Amino acid sequence: CQAKEPYRTGYHFQPPKNWINDPNGPLIYKNVYHHFYQYNPHGVAWSPNIVWAHSTSNDLVNWIPHDDALNPSEPFDINGCWSGSATILPGEKPAIFYTGINSENEQVQNLAFPKNLSDPFLREWVKIPQNPLMIPTEANQINADSFRDPSTAWLGSDNRWRLVIGSKQNQTGLAILYMSEDFLHWTRVNHTFHSAKENGMWECPDFFPVSNSSPIGLDTSTNGPDVKHVLKVSLFDTAKEYYTIGTYNLDKDLYNPDKGSEESDLGLRYDYGKFYASKSFFDSAKNRRILWGWSNESSSANDDIKKGWSGLQTIPRTILLDESGKQLVQWPIEELEKLRTKQVRLPRIVIEGGSLHEVLGVTAAQADIEVTFEISDFEKTEVLDPSWTDPQILCSKKDASVYGGLGPFGLLVLASESLQEYTAVFYRIFKSHNNKYVVLMCSDQSRSSLNENNDKTTYGAFVDVDPVHEKLSLRSLIDHSIVESFGGEGKACITARVYPTLAVDGYTSLYTFNYGKEGVKITGSAWSMRTAKINRSRKEENE
Ligand code: DQQ
Predict the structure, then answer these.
(1) Residue 368: CB within 6 Å of ligand 1?
(2) Glycosyl hydrolase family 32 C-terminal domain spans which residues (predicted)?
(3) pLDDT tens-digit map of 424-464
(4) Ligand 1 in contact with 428 (CB < 6 A)?
(5) CATH numbers and ranges of domains, the chain
């Protein structure tokens, strides 16, 4: 039978009802993970007087809810508690910087501390009386509508704290640098930390170090010879995020992206689908950096009202610098694998061109599937037209129904019985004019639902894998209304939101497919995923 709530997820973070957006101030304290997020307690749409909701977890998978951490209450935040970040000060003292919308409707930056440090759940937060600590003024030429989302602060070797705030001037996106000796008095540094023209407002800047020598995460204040830095910004105008990898010049307090990784429409993205306002934090318990992102709905406002909620958090991902040094790689946190059950091994076969194979024995609406493709014959590879530079456009033109040479091959997820509905996550391989192979990864939502009110945009990314010498892998986390896919072992990620009308719960199937001319060998496994305990009431937990 069909569930009453076919789109509610089984293992993605979401509260029982209402609107959520950005993850805020993730942190670990006394071995407890804290997740704050933008939440509208009064409805399914965003509202400016938004609050910081709060949940905690021991494993980043199961979550318990707490009272809201920050609510509009003071002249410096009476019209809203917007996004911000946490910093762990020396002596293991967490601090939260957030943007308050003040009584004049200006964006100002405020500081809050836990009321009781002996409470590992940090249930109560106190806004300090000195707030606001950073304000937009005519003198500092900061626009009061474009001054928000303080980053985690880092400590320089001069013992001074720094943080960046998102802003814009005309259409130039800005990361404004502030500095402080005592964490209380902050001054704007005269030069801009980093900026890019024709970007519009930079929201939620995140600036952090990554190791270029070992696969570990680093505390935000770490610097040194084995360290590169990452700056991520969320572009308000396009609702897309871009990151660059670069060098942090300590003497000048400037960030310089490496050549070839400036923001542009073809720049590097954490995720080429629905993923925004992300935030990372250093998990000191496991020496890793974890990334949280918000996945907005692709359904209509009316459908959101019907289902009573809007917005999900994606599965936390560990992020590392790729061996090439040119990009990051992301992977779902290892703890998620605890939810895997009833493993189904895919028979090691060659899926011939034009064939479809059902993966039987998994709960296909709530599953995790990891497959590897091996290609031995490249003869029928199509030639890449040099004008095909935009992967998203290429994936929409050559969607899953367009037969090709080498590919499309991959997965049909959330598929209905007669394939009236399915979401296709797949690869196509092309040969470029310099005889290199180019791997395209697509998530095609065009047939995901018979409901025409959804945004069914198809997404795409090029994946830096050499299919001649390397295996090509694909992992998809399928969870009722979200499909998070990881290509090339996390080199390209695509998150899609879909709302099948037929392929719900027990009426859902999962397939591997190949609509190319060349056969492809496939290996891998699929798992049914258990339901995580996420923000459930005591009563529900006992059921
Ligand atoms: N969401 C927050 C802002 C931020 C935006 C408000 C990004 O602080 O800039 O809910 O989604």
Answers:
(1) no
(2) 335-518
(3) 999 999 999 888 999 999 999 999 999 999 999 999 999 99
(4) no
(5) 18-332 (2.115.10.20), 339-529 (2.60.120.560)
Q: Which of 24, 37, 40, 83 to mutate to test the pocket of ligand 1 (most atoms within 8 A of CB)?
A: 83
Structure confidence at residue 1 (pLDDT): 43
Strands (DSSP E) contained in 296-417 are 309-310, 312-313, 317-321, 328-332, 340-345, 349-351, 355-358, 366-374, 382-383, 406-415
Query: What is the reported pTM?
Result: 0.97
Nearest CA to ligand 1 atom 11: 277
* Beta bridge partner(s), residue 524: 371
SS3 80: coil
- Give the closest residue (by CA) to ligand 1 atom 9: 203
Residue 24's DSSP bridge partners are 36
Q: Is 79 in the pocket of ligand 1 (CB under 6 A)?
A: no
- 29-72 tens-digit pLDDT: 999 999 999 999 999 999 999 999 999 999 999 999 999 999 99
**Six-digit token pair at 143?**
């626009």
Closest ligand 1 atom to the C-alpha of 166?
Answer: 9
| 40 alpha carbon – ligand 1 mean position (Å) | 12
Structure tokens at 19: 């609107």
**ipTM for the complex shown:** 0.99
Give the C-alpha separation, 522 to 210, whole Å. Answer: 33
